[in-house]
C-alpha cells in the first residue's frame, strides 16, 4: 500500500450534519442478491416539519434524514410515514434447500472399512455495538471517516454508490470502536446522505439498523472413511452456509450492484489439509439467517474444529495414533515437518489411555491446521497444537495444564505475536476462553463510543497494519478448539462437539449429578410467610453473626491498575454512588435517606475512611456484607441494600470492586443512624428474612440462552439490581419473583414501571429502544430517563455498548410485543388520537397546558424549538396506573439526563399551585391516555410529592 | 469531573469550565456578557431568553449548558453588527415594533428562525409562529408587520 496523504481532520460541530436512516421491515437474505421490501410510498411532511431537519433523502428503497442534530434526525425518521411491499418470498418452505458444492475430487461416496460420521457445531456470534461514519464530498472527491478496515472492496462499493472513480474515494480508519465490519453500512449511508445534502454528514447506527443477524450455530456434518490398511479413502462435509456477508445496505437499497466480491471468505478451510482421494465439501443454505457482520474468522475456526475433531475420532476408530495418522495424511512437506516438530517438543507419546472414574482425570489432544496460499485475511502457513488438560470429574471443571504451539507462517511480516512467549500467552488465553464456564458473562470490555462532536480529539492513525491479533495471527490459533476438545476426550471419553467446553456442559455430558439449588426457602415464601413465621425460624439460624476484626486497609499499589479499573466498571454497573451519596454530599460518603414502607434507611459511608467508612473492612468482611447482608461488626443490614442481588456477582468482580473502593480517597462522614419502628428495628429478625427470601448463590448462566443474554442477565440480576425497583415486593419487603418479576415497583417516590408483559408503555419496548434509552438516556418513542433512572443511565455510561446491549437483550426477553404494526405506525395512531382529544378538551387544563407546556410539547404549533417536541402521548408515565411520575416531573422537572442532550425540563413546583397541578395532571391524562381510566385522588398524590419534594 | 464544555457563540469558540447543568442563559449573560437574551419567566414559557442553537430557536433559560456542547449558539448580538442591524432587526426598527422592548429579543430571534424555514409566510403563519412568545404590550400588530417586512427585506438581500 502506498503512503497516503495525512488524514484530514474529522468535521465536527456546526460543520457537520447528522443523518439517520429508515430500514425496510424485511430483507430476505436467501436470494441472490438479497431482496428487501420495496418502498411504495413516502410521506415526509411530518418529518420535514420538525426543527433542524435539513433534507429527507429517498433513493430506491433507501430512506434517510439529514438534520442539524442526531436527535432531530432520529426523531424525523420516526415521523416518516412509509409504505412497504414485502419482498417476494424466497424458496418455499418444504422445497429442497439449495446446495452448493465448494470442492470436489475423486469419489467421495466410497464406503470404507472404518467410517466415522459426526456433526460439529460452532456458535457464530454477531459483535453487537453501535457504529458510525462521517462522509464529506469536496473538490477532491469523497472522504469517509469510520472505524472500518479500509479494504479496497469497500472503497469500490462507496465509489459505485457515489458515482465516482475509485481513486477519488478515500477511507480513513478511525480507531477506537469495536464494530468494524458494521461500519461499512454506516459509511454507505453517510455517503448517500452527504451527497444529497451537499454537506458533511455523520451517521450513527444501532445494531438493529445494521440488520445483521445476532448469531446462530454453524453446523458441519462430516463423514470420513478409511480403506484397508487405514488408508484415507473418502471425506464428505456439509456445512450450513451462512448468507454471504451483506453488501453495505445502502447499496442494496439503492439498487446498485456491489462491485466487490461477496463470497464468504473462509473457503480456504472448507477442505481438510489431508490427501483424501475422494472428497466433497458442500454448503446448504441456512434459511432465514441474516448475514453476520464478519463471519469469516468464525467459519474458519468452525471448519478446522470439525476437521480436526473428526481426525481424532477417525484415528481412534482405526486404532492409530492421531499424530502418526496425520503424518501419513498431510500432503505438504512443511506441514508434516511442523507436526513432527511440535509432537517432539511436547514429548508426544500417544494418548494417555487412562480414565479414572472419579477425582481428576488428565488428557492430551493434538490438532493441526494448514493452508498453502494466503487469502481473505488469513495468512498461508501451518499451525499445530498439543494441549494437556485436567478435568475434575465431579464438577466438570477443565484446567489447561500445558499448551505447546507450533506455527510457521509463509509470510514473516504478520501481526503474529513476535516472540515465543507472546504466542504462548495468546495460546493460553485462547485455550482458557474455550473452556470458560459461561463465556464472558462477567468479562468487562473497554468502553467505546462514537466520537461526540463536543470537541473530543480522535486518534488519527494511518492505514491500520493489522486490525486484530486474531486476524493477523489467523492460522496460529485455529487448531485451539479441536486440540482442547481432543484432550478432553482423552481425559474423559466425552467428545465435545460445540465450544465453549464449559464445566456445566461437560458435567452434563459426564452425567454427574448436578447440585440442585436450595429451593425450600422460596416455597415457604409462597405459603404466606409473616412475622410469626420469621420469628419461629429464628431458632434455626444464628441471628448474630460474629464480628470480623478490623484490618489495616490495603496499601496503595496492592491492587493492580487493571483490577481497580475493572472495579470502577463494576461500581458503575452497580450504581453504588447513587444510593451512597447524600444530596450535594461527597461521592460514596453515605447519608442518602431512603424511604421504605418500614421507615427511613440512611445509606452508609463506603469510602475507605477508617472510622466512619469501610477502611478497616477486610475483603472477607466486605464480601460477607455484599453477599449475606452482614455488617463487619455482625449487625444485619436491611435489604434496601440489595445484597440479595449482589450475591450473584462473581468473585473476580467482587474482588475488583473491593480494590476499587479501597483505592478511593477516604471521606470522614458519619451518616444519620437508621431507626425503624419495631419490629423492623430488630435487626436480628433479618436472619429469618434472609432464610425466607435470600439465596446466596452466584449467578448461574442459562446454557440454553445466548452469551449476550447471559451477560445481560448477569448485569441486570446482579450488579444492576434492576428488580430492586422494578419488581413488586411482598408485605415483608422481599422482591416477588416468577410472573411478578420486573412487574413494576415503587422507589424513591417514583413508580418503577413494569418491564415485563405488564408494561403500560403505549408502544412496546424493543431491544433497540431499550438500548437507546439506557445508552442515550432517551428513546424517541418513549421519552427521557428521569428521576432515579437518570443516575442509572449515567452509571451505565461507563460501560461499553456491548454491555448496554446485553442488558437490553435480557430485559427485552421479558417484554411482549402485542401489536404487529410497526412502532412508527403505532406512534402515528396514538398521536392522532391525542390530536382529536385536544379538540374536545377545553377549559382550565387546556389553558394551563397552552401557557406552560405547549411551547415544547405541542408539535406542529408555534415556531420550531430546539430540542424535542417530546411526544407525551407515547410516554409510559401518562399511561401507568398511578400519576406519581408525572407529578414528580411536573414538580421538579427533569434536571439532567446523563449523556443526553434532550429532556431537560424546568420544575413547576414554585409556579403552579396544588389545584392548578391537579387540573393539569387530569387534563394530560385525558389528552394523552383517553383509553385509560382517570387517575384516582390526584390531589393526594400532588400533596404527597410536594411534601416529599427533593 | 468534566474538562469543560466547548461551544461556539456568535462565531467565536469558547471552552467553559462550568457546571454542565448551568442554564445557557446564565452563561451567556454572566460569563459571556451577552445581554441580548433576557430573563423572563425562567420556565421556558415566555421566550424572552430565546437564542438560536444551530439555527433553531431555543429557550436558553431551561437549556442546560451540556445541551449545547459542540453546537453553535447565536444571540441577538450575533444577528447584526452594531450600526449594521440584520434585516429582521431593521424591520423591527422601521415598524417601531417596541413598547418596553423586553420581549423583543425573543420576537426577533424567533422570527429569524421562523423566516429561515418559511421565507414568505402569510400573516396567519406569523401569528402562529409567535404564539408562544408571551407579551402583554401594545405592539403586537407592529410586531407582526415587522416580521412580514423582514421577510421582504431578507428576500431583497438574497437578490430576489
From TrEMBL, chain A:
Q: Which domain of life is it from?
A: Bacteria
For this protein, the record's Pfam families field holds: Cytochrom_C (PF00034), Cytochrome_CBB3 (PF13442)
Q: Which SUPFAM superfamilies match?
A: CO dehydrogenase molybdoprotein N-domain-like (SSF54665), Cytochrome c (SSF46626), Molybdenum cofactor-binding domain (SSF56003)
- Domain (Cytochrome c) spans 562-665, 707-815, 840-928
Question: Record's PROSITE patterns?
Answer: CYTC (PS51007)
> What are the entry keywords?
Heme, Iron, Metal-binding
**What is the protein's given name?**
Nicotinate dehydrogenase subunit B
Species of origin reads: Noviherbaspirillum suwonense
The opening ranks of the lineage are: Bacteria, Pseudomonadati, Pseudomonadota, Betaproteobacteria, Burkholderiales
UniProtKB/TrEMBL annotation, chain B:
- SUPFAM superfamilies, per this entry? 2Fe-2S ferredoxin-like, CO dehydrogenase ISP C-domain like
Which UniProt keywords are present, listed alphabetically?
A: 2Fe-2S, Iron, Iron-sulfur, Metal-binding, Oxidoreductase
Q: Which InterPro entries match?
A: 2Fe-2S-bd, 2Fe-2S-bd_dom_sf, 2Fe-2S_ferredoxin-like_sf, 2Fe-2S_ferredoxin-type, 2Fe2S_fd_BS, Beta-grasp_dom_sf, Diverse_Oxidoreductases
- Membrane-spanning residues: none
- Reading the lineage from the top rank, the first entry is Bacteria
Fetch the PROSITE patterns from UniProt: 2FE2S_FER_1, 2FE2S_FER_2
The answer to whether UniProt assigns keyword Iron to this entry is yes
One Pfam family from the UniProt entry?
Fer2_2
Which Gene3D superfamilies does the UniProt entry name for this protein? 3.10.20.30, [2Fe-2S]-binding domain
Per UniProt, residues of the 2Fe-2S ferredoxin-type domain are 3-79
- What is the official name of this protein in its record? Nicotinate dehydrogenase subunit A
Amino acid at each position: 500500500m502506498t503512503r497516503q496523504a495525512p488524514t484530514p481532520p474529522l468535521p465536527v460541530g456546526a460543520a457537520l450534519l447528522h443523518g439517520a436512516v429508515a430500514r425496510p421491515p424485511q430483507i430476505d437474505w436467501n436470494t441472490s442478491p438479497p431482496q428487501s421490501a420495496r418502498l411504495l410510498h413516502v410521506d415526509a411532511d411530518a418529518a420535514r416539519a420538525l426543527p433542524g431537519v435539513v433534507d429527507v433523502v429517498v433513493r430506491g428503497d433507501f430512506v434517510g434524514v439529514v438534520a442539524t442534530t442526531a436527535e432531530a434526525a432520529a426523531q424525523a425518521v420516526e415521523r416518516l410515514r412509509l409504505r412497504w411491499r414485502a419482498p417476494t418470498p424466497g424458496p418455499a418452505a418444504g422445497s429442497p434447500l439449495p446446495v452448493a458444492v465448494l470442492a470436489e475430487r475423486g469419489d467421495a461416496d466410497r464406503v470404507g472399512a472404518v467410517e466415522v460420521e459426526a456433526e460439529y457445531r460452532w456458535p457464530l456470534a454477531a459483535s453487537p455495538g453501535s457504529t458510525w461514519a462521517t462522509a464529506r464530498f469536496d473538490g477532491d472527491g469523497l472522504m469517509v471517516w469510520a472505524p472500518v478496515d479500509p479494504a479496497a472492496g469497500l472503497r469500490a462499493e462507496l465509489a459505485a454508490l457515489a458515482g465516482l472513480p475509485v481513486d477519488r474515494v478515500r477511507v480513513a480508519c478511525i480507531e477506537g470502536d469495536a464494530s468494524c465490519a458494521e461500519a461499512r453500512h454506516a459509511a454507505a449511508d453517510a455517503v448517500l446522505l452527504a451527497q444529497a445534502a451537499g454537506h458533511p454528514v455523520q451517521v450513527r447506527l444501532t445494531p438493529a439498523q445494521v440488520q445483521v443477524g445476532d448469531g446462530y450455530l454453524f453446523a458441519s456434518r462430516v463423514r470420513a472413511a478409511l480403506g484397508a490398511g487405514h488408508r484415507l479413502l473418502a471425506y464428505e462435509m456439509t456445512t450450513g452456509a451462512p448468507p454471504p456477508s451483506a453488501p453495505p445496505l445502502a447499496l442494496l437499497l439503492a439498487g446498485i450492484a456491489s462491485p466487490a466480491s461477496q463470497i464468504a471468505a473462509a473457503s480456504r478451510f472448507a477442505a481438510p489439509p489431508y490427501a483424501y482421494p475422494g472428497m466433497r465439501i458442500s454448503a446448504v443454505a441456512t434459511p432465514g439467517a441474516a448475514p453476520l457482520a464478519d463471519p469469516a474468522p468464525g467459519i474458519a475456526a468452525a471448519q478446522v474444529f470439525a476437521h480436526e475433531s473428526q481426525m481424532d475420532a477417525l484415528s481412534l476408530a482405526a486404532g492409530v495414533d492421531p499424530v502418526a495418522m496425520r503424518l501419513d495424511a498431510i500432503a505438504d512437506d512443511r506441514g508434516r515437518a511442523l507436526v513432527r516438530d511440535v509432537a517432539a517438543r511436547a514429548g508426544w507419546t500417544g494418548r494417555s489411555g487412562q480414565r479414572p472414574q472419579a477425582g481428576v482425570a488428565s488428557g492430551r489432544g493434538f490438532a493441526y491446521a494448514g493452508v498453502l496460499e494466503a487469502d481473505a485475511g488469513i495468512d498461508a502457513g501451518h499451525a499445530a497444537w498439543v494441549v494437556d488438560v485436567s478435568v475434575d470429574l465431579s464438577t466438570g471443571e477443565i484446567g489447561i495444564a500445558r499448551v505447546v504451539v507450533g506455527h510457521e507462517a509463509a509470510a514473516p511480516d504478520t501481526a503474529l505475536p513476535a516472540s515465543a512467549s507472546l504466542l504462548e500467552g495468546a495460546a493460553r488465553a485462547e485455550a482458557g476462553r474455550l473452556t470458560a464456564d459461561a463465556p464472558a458473562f462477567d468479562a468487562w470490555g473497554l468502553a467505546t463510543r462514537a466520537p461526540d462532536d463536543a470537541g473530543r480529539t480522535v486518534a488519527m492513525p494511518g492505514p491500520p497494519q493489522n486490525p486484530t491479533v486474531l486476524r493477523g495471527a489467523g492460522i496460529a490459533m485455529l487448531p485451539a478448539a479441536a486440540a482442547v476438545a481432543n484432550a478432553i476426550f482423552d481425559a474423559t471419553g466425552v467428545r465435545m462437539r460445540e465450544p465453549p467446553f464449559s464445566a456445566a456442559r461437560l458435567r452434563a455430558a459426564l452425567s454427574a449429578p448436578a447440585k440442585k439449588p436450595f429451593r425450600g426457602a422460596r416455597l415457604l415464601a409462597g405459603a404466606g410467610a409473616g412475622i410469626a413465621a420469621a420469628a419461629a425460624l429464628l431458632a434455626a439460624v444464628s441471628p448474630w453473626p460474629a464480628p470480623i476484626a478490623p484490618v489495616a486497609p490495603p496499601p496503595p499499589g496492592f491492587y493492580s491498575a487493571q483490577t481497580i479499573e475493572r472495579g470502577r466498571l463494576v461500581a458503575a454497573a452497580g450504581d453504588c454512588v447513587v444510593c451512597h451519596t447524600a444530596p450535594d454530599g461527597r461521592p460514596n460518603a453515605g447519608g442518602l435517606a431512603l424511604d421504605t414502607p418500614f421507615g427511613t434507611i440512611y445509606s452508609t459511608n463506603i469510602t475507605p475512611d477508617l472510622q466512619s467508612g469501610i477502611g478497616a473492612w477486610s475483603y472477607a468482611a466486605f464480601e460477607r456484607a455484599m453477599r449475606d447482608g452482614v455488617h463487619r461488626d455482625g449487625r444485619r443490614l436491611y435489604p434496601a441494600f440489595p445484597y440479595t442481588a449482589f450475591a450473584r456477582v462473581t468473585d473476580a468482580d467482587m474482588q475488583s470492586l473491593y480494590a476499587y473502593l479501597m483505592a478511593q480517597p477516604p471521606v470522614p462522614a458519619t451518616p444519620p443512624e437508621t431507626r425503624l419502628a419495631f419490629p423492623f428495628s430488630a435487626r436480628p429478625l433479618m436472619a429469618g428474612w434472609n432464610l425466607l427470601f435470600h439465596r446466596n448463590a452466584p449467578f448461574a448462566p442459562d446454557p440454553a440462552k445466548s452469551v449476550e443474554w447471559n451477560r445481560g442477565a448477569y448485569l441486570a440480576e446482579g450488579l444492576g439490581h434492576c428488580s430492586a425497583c422494578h419488581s413488586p415486593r411482598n408485605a415483608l419487603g422481599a422482591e416477588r419473583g416468577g410472573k411478578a418479576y420486573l412487574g413494576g415497583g415503587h422507589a424513591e417516590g417514583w413508580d418503577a414501571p413494569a418491564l415485563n408483559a405488564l408494561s403500560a408503555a403505549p408502544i412496546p419496548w424493543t431491544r433497540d429502544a431499550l438500548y437507546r434509552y439506557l445508552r442515550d438516556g432517551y428513546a424517541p418513542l418513549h421519552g427521557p430517563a428521569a428521576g432515579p433512572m437518570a443516575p442509572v443511565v449515567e452509571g451505565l455510561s461507563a460501560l461499553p455498548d456491548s454491555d448496554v446491549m446485553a442488558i437490553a437483550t435480557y430485559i427485552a426477553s421479558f417484554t411482549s410485543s402485542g401489536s404487529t404494526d410497526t412502532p412508527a405506525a403505532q406512534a402515528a395512531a396514538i398521536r392522532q388520537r391525542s390530536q382529536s382529544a385536544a379538540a374536545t378538551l377545553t377549559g382550565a387544563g387546556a389553558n394551563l397546558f397552552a401557557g406552560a407546556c405547549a411551547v415544547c410539547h405541542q408539535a406542529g404549533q408555534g415556531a420550531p424549538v430546539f430540542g424535542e417536541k417530546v411526544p407525551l402521548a407515547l410516554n409510559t408515565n401518562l399511561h401507568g396506573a398511578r400519576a406519581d411520575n408525572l407529578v414528580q416531573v411536573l414538580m421538579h422537572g427533569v434536571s439532567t439526563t446523563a449523556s443526553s442532550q434532550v429532556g431537560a425540563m424546568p420544575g413547576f413546583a414554585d409556579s403552579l399551585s396544588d389545584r392548578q397541578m391537579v387540573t393539569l395532571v387530569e387534563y394530560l391524562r385525558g389528552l394523552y391516555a383517553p383509553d385509560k381510566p382517570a387517575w384516582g385522588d390526584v390531589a393526594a398524590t400532588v400533596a404527597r410529592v410536594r411534601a416529599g419534594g427533593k | 469531573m468534566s474538562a469543560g464544555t466547548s461551544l461556539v457563540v456568535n462565531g467565536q469558540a469558547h471552552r467553559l469550565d462550568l457546571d454542565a447543568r448551568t442554564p445557557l442563559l446564565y452563561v451567556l449573560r454572566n460569563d459571556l456578557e451577552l445581554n441580548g437574551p433576557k430573563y423572563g419567566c425562567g420556565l421556558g414559557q415566555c421566550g424572552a431568553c430565546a437564542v438560536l442553537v444551530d439555527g433553531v430557536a431555543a429557550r436558553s433559560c431551561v437549556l442546560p449548558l451540556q445541551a449545547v456542547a459542540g453546537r453553535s449558539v447565536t444571540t441577538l448580538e450575533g444577528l447584526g453588527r452594531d450600526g449594521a442591524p440584520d434585516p429582521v432587526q431593521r424591520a423591527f426598527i422601521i415598524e417601531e415594533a417596541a413598547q418596553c422592548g423586553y420581549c423583543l429579543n425573543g420576537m426577533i430571534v424567533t422570527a429569524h428562525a421562523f423566516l429561515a424555514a418559511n421565507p414568505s409566510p402569510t400573516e396567519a403563519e406569523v401569528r402562529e409562529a409567535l404564539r408562544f412568545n408571551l407579551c402583554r404590550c401594545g405592539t403586537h400588530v407592529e410586531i407582526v408587520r415587522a416580521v412580514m417586512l423582514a421577510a421582504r427585506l431578507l428576500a431583497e438581500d438574497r437578490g430576489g
